[in-house]
TrEMBL record:
Residues 146-173 form a coiled coil. Gene3D superfamilies: Jelly Rolls. The lineage of its organism: Bacteria, Pseudomonadati, Bacteroidota, Flavobacteriia, Flavobacteriales. This is Cyclic nucleotide-binding protein. The keyword Coiled coil applies. It comes from Wenyingzhuangia marina. The keyword tRNA processing does not apply. Keywords: Coiled coil. InterPro entries: cNMP-bd_dom (IPR000595), cNMP-bd_dom_sf (IPR018490), RmlC-like_jellyroll (IPR014710).
Length: 192
């Protein structure tokens, strides 16, 4: 578990053995059952996690019950409601396990202290945020407003190729901003 965690860290920044060892010390292994929440909407988050195994949905539920899925997180991903953690405010999003999961959780306060003691971990964090929450976000914003649902689905298939079979149709439709019926029509049209 720790080897994959180290590999994921080093995708974003080269870290010394000392920094990695310090990071590993703040990790707490946890297991969540399918349907368990890592974070509920409206809760003030206190931690991040690295996913060893399993699948999570990052979503917002509106007052009328509509659910909009912003992102899916699977193995070797980091999860958190980052904006709420930074702002120390209630999260607009929930993070729920879609399968049995195993994670390495770490508290925000411990992580902040770690970044002060080991600035290279701060560089990892900056690079991670830039790549996953800034650079990756722009195309999603444009896609939802200007691309057809069919094109968005094809791009979803490319991005989430390894997990699509683990998702239910209504989850994919929610991510795409369409109904399950519309998704069925798109799938049929693609098969022809």
């Amino acid at each position: 578990m720790i080897e994959k965690f180290k590999e994921e860290l080093e995708k974003y920044s080269q870290l010394s053995t000392e920094s990695i060892q310090a990071f590993v010390k703040i990790l707490k292994p946890q297991s969540l059952n399918k349907g368990d929440y890592f974070l509920r909407q409206g809760q003030v988050p206190k931690s991040y996690a690295y996913i060893k195994s399993g699948l999570f949905s990052y979503f917002h539920t509106y007052e009328n019950g509509d659910i909009v899925i912003k992102k899916f997180f699977s193995e070797n991903s980091f999860i958190a409601s980052t904006a709420a953690l930074i702002g120390k405010k209630p999260s607009l999003f929930a993070i729920q396990a879609l399968e049995e999961t195993k994670i390495l959780e770490y508290q925000n306060t411990d992580f902040r202290q770690l970044m002060k003691k080991h600035p290279e971990i701060a560089f990892f964090y900056i690079n991670y945020l830039e790549q996953n929450w800034v650079v990756a976000k722009e195309p999603l914003e444009i896609n939802l407003k200007y691309k057809t649902a069919k094109v968005r689905y094809e791009e979803f298939q490319s991005e989430y190729e390894t997990i699509e079979s683990r998702l239910k149709q209504h989850q994919i439709a929610s991510y795409l901003g369409i109904t399950p019926t519309q998704l069925s029509r798109i799938k049929k049209a693609i098969k022809k």
